[in-house]
Amino acid sequence: MTVAYPINRAWISTGHTGAQNYDEFAEDREITEIIARNPVSALAVEMPHLAPASLGKTFIEALPDAASRLQDTLRTSFRPHEDVVAIYRLGPGSYGVFCLVGTDQISTNADEPGLVIRNEDVFIEKVRERVALAESVGHLLSPVLLLQSGKGAELHALLEELTGNMGSPAVTDTDQNGREHAVWVLGPGPDQDEVLALAGGGELIVADGNHRSLAAQTGGLPKFLAVVTTPESIAIQPYNRLLLGPVIDIDKLRALGAEVVPAETPITVPATGGSIVLYAEGKAHSVTLPSGPGAELVQRLDHALVERVIFNELLGLDAGDKRINYVGGDYSAAYLQSEVDEGRATAAILVAPVTVDDFVAVNLSRLKLPRKSTWFTPKARGGLVLTELPK
Length: 391
Known about the structure:
This protein is 30% helix and 27% strand. It has twelve helices and 21 strands. The chain has helices spanning 28-37, 43-46, 63-77, 124-137, 152-165, 190-199, 210-218, 250-255, 297-300, 302-314, 333-341, 356-364; strands at residues 4-5, 7-13, 78-91, 94-102, 106-107, 116-117, 139-140, 144-148, 171-174, 180-186, 204-208, 223-229, 235-237, 239-243, 259-262, 276-280, 283-288, 324-328, 347-350, 375-377, 385-388. The protein is globular. It starts with a strand and ends with a strand.
């Protein structure tokens, strides 16, 4: 039995439509600038209110613009395929497969059966936007990145072999880090059957796309677009935070039980967990936050402590507050420091990446990580392979 399926109606890019996923940016203006330079970028559909021609509209108001842009782009920059999977090289030594995965397999706790483990809390507003977008444009443009935990080594070997034997890819795309992404189309036959059997042959952990997977459930989709990748293909990078407005009082933070000592500048991300780096008003601090006695693994993670102690208890903020900016590992510590020094943020909070062991342990226990805890690289590109939703 497999929970991975071919894409019934796939649209494969012919070039220039690939983009970072919509949630990978620290600032909205970056998205607008990308769309201005490249109007066929998938971001023009995924974030329609940030396209230059739609600025001033809300996300919902811009959805008709998204539908119109996608239809134009399908005619000029995609080719349709039936019942295919797409073999995907995310970069040197990194492999995955675009396919469909059964939505009914998503499990968020130990009481829910299913082979797809979703592991992070989400922002419900973002989920609603993804549902509305899918309903408006009739397609899914960005995949959920799934880590094949059971058959990963076998899948990795097969995909590496196939990419070496299939000739030139259907499309290549270079990301913002200079990494080349390549896609090969694989139709029905024994090779496709073997790929799907391995891709869906063990527990699949959501590495990126928690909002998109919940949107598939909320929108009643029987299947969602996924890239199933392997443990050998990806790594976990830091996921940091910027505060936009609130000021952290160090004395009050100490009163909550935090240990605060001076740290060096320029700031760097901690190599291991147990303490964070806080930078504000030109000063850096190494901060050890109190976890409380008997706290379970998730509650001891630095990301959870930042959310509870600093955001909730110290500042009275919910993790979804717009004054908290979640900044992924593609942005350096120097960028974070400059945002504070130049007055665009009041504080930077640098957090060591979650370890692979902790990530796996949390998932196998069917627990949830705090929001925006894991930044997996390389990221799957949006806009390279689309799936058309059944009418």
